[in-house]
Structures are given as C-alpha cells and as structure tokens.
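QA checklist item 7 of 12: single-chain prediction sanity check.
[x] sequence parsed
[x] length recorded as 150
[x] structure emitted
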Amino acid sequence: MRNTTRQDRPAHLILGERGERFALEFLKHRHGYQIVARNFSTPLGRNRRGAPIRGEIDIIAYDGNTLAFVEVKTRLSEGIATAAAAVDRSKQRTVARTASVYRRLMHLDGVNYRFDLVTVVFDKGTSPRITLHKGYFTERAMPSPRVPVY
C-alpha cells in the first residue's frame, strides 16, 4: 500500500475538506454550535446490485438543545447551479438514514434534532461566502412533482 500525499488527492476532495474547515469554524464561532463529531460514516446496507452503501454526515453538533446533522456543500462558484442544489432528495434520504443510525448508536432517541445545510462558495478573489440554512430539510417525504397533463 502506498502512502498518498495531499497532492495525490482529487481537487474536489481537497476543496470539500477546505469548505468543511470553514463551515466548522463558522458554526462554532459565529453561531455557537458545540461540535460533537465530524465525518461520521456508517454502512447503510446494499443497493440493488449488491454494492455496499455508506452514509456520511459532515458535522454533528448541538445548537442549544437541538442536535444538528449538518451537510456541507462547497463550490468554486454558483454560476451554473447553487451549492444547495446538490442536496437532492436522494442525498437527504441518505443523510437522514445515517442520522438515524447515529442516534440509535448514541442512545439519543428522545433528543430534538434537525438537518442543517452550510454552503461555502469560494468566488474568485473574495473571501468565502458561507451560508447556514437551519432546518434545510426534514425526514418527511417530499411530494412528487406534479406533471402537467395535456
């Protein structure tokens, strides 16, 4: 097994880690979150083809008495799509399932919790633009989009 250096890693992973560091400091120092865990990962089962599925939560923290499961999305720009657009229903389900495992493992059945999103955008030549979206999604199923009938 060879040792990999930071330069060997794909650029999107390095960017994501940088965004998570900014998000972590933002949550702690600007919003008073008490960080519990970072990059919590757990197996969730297998897909239809039998391949293993893993879930990951970027940041788990308390905001007062509420446990926040925080997804972080980092982009270099939002020229084509917003960072938040990457948190589609499939991603929401995966995060919710992972949070359920975490709550079960930590015996947190009765704790209040929610799903937050932090977006970090590194526009050229500026400081990163960081936005917190508290309660960005819930575990409840989203209604199916209505398709017009002609």
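[x] summary fact logged: Confidence is low (pLDDT under 50) at residues 142-150.
[ ] second reviewer sign-off
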